[in-house]
Specification:
α3 links the parallel β7 and β8. The chain starts with a strand and ends with a strand. With 274 residues, the protein is of the alpha+beta class. It is built from 5 helices and 13 strands. It is globular and about 45 Å long. It is 19% helix and 34% strand. α1 packs across α2 and α3 runs parallel beside α4.
Length: 274
């Protein structure tokens, strides 16, 4: 069973339609069980989309627009015979014209929830952060999946992470936290160490995988990391000990699959204990 997380930087890339197609082709090939996407954008003024029963709304759901990146992806997958249940929740205004949020795609139905984790609660303030959580099934086992896009350490990560930990407390389910954490491993960054220390029940899929192929997910100056010249691992899959990780693979890096975003993706193959 394979999972994928990717910060899509949607509609901000050159040749975005081609990259959407490349993403859909890779998903069709790999048949990921669960996919967590971040920076999933839709224009503020585009038309509302006719979603079907495979879309699972959160409470106070924003309307899904025809250019919602996850909607377009799911529709493209459907055209090629691949059906995914999915959810999307907005977080804040992106690039002055998008409703930016996170999405979860799953082969089985999703029971979703949008979690405000930031001190800010204003759509027009990019400090506003919402995490999309969803219960779904993997190998007939109920699991809780979070598609995460956090702030940088100095911009609010400690508070946002504390809200996440409080939400997770008492959740007696296998947990998968997937996404862009904006705090790098292997650089003595405070955020990565703080995360592991404050949630010792979570493992980094990279460190516990039987086999690893690739490491960093950002290697140049990108939005939010202007002037960066380092190779950064900031996109993660964190999980509880219910899971056994066979392989960790960096993808959409121009080697394993075409580059489709300013982030590379992370693919994890695992099994879940029952």
């Amino acid at each position: 069973m394979k999972l994928l997380t990717l910060n899509t930087h949607s509609w901000m890339e050159e040749n975005p339609e081609q990259k959407l197609q490349q993403l859909a082709e890779k998903i069709g090939e790999e048949q990921y069980e669960i996919i967590a996407l971040q920076e999933v954008n839709q224009l503020l003024d585009s038309n509302v989309a006719p979603v079907d029963a495979f879309f699972h709304p959160v409470e106070d759901q924003w309307p899904i627009h025809e250019d919602n990146f996850a909607y377009r992806l799911v529709e493209l997958l459907k055209e090629n015979g691949h059906r995914y249940h999915w959810s999307w929740s907005e977080s804040h205004l992106g690039y002055d014209r998008f409703a930016e949020g996170a999405a979860i795609l799953s082969k089985t139905a999703i029971s979703p929830e949008s979690l405000l984790v930031s001190t800010a609660n204003d759509f027009h303030d990019y400090h506003t952060r919402r995490i999309l959580a969803g219960k779904t099934l993997i190998q007939d086992q109920e699991v809780l999946v979070l598609s995460c896009h956090y702030s940088w350490w100095e911009a609010g990560f400690p508070y946002e992470w504390q809200q996440t930990v409080e939400y997770l407390n008492g959740k007696n389910l296998p947990l998968l936290l997937m996404g862009d954490f904006n705090n790098a491993a292997d650089r003595n960054d405070e955020g990565y160490d703080h995360l592991l220390a404050s949630a010792p029940y979570l493992n980094d899929a990279y460190t516990v995988a039987d086999k690893r192929n690739g490491n960093y997910t950002v290697e140049k100056s990108i939005d939010g990391w202007e002037g960066n010249a380092d190779q950064l691992r900031i996109d993660y899959v964190f999980l509880t000990s219910h899971f056994q990780v066979a392989t960790y693979q960096v993808t959409f890096d121009g080697i394993d699959a075409p580059v489709v975003s300013d982030h590379y993706g992370v693919e994890v193959e695992l099994t879940v204990e029952k």
